[in-house]
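sry for the spam today, last one i promise. struct tokens for design, 65 residues
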């Protein structure tokens, strides 16, 4: 069997925490920022955890399972 390759697009978008959670960057931060409140924009800087429904797929792309 050949080695499993990491999906490079996924590797650039997701990272793993020490506890094994998969972290992602938040969306909606790039444009149309005038109408968004400072609090909302500040919150976009914090990383988010991926949804339960996506964990299996993303883990496979990252070559974890």
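last one done:
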């Amino acid at each position: 069997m050949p080695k499993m390759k990491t999906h490079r697009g996924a590797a650039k978008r997701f990272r793993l925490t020490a506890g094994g959670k998969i972290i992602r960057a938040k969306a909606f931060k790039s444009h149309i920022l005038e109408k968004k409140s400072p609090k909302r924009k500040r919150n976009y800087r914090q990383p988010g955890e991926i949804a339960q429904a996506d964990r299996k797929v993303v883990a496979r792309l990252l070559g974890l399972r």
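The CA atoms of residues 35 and 41 lie 10 Å apart. ok im logging off now
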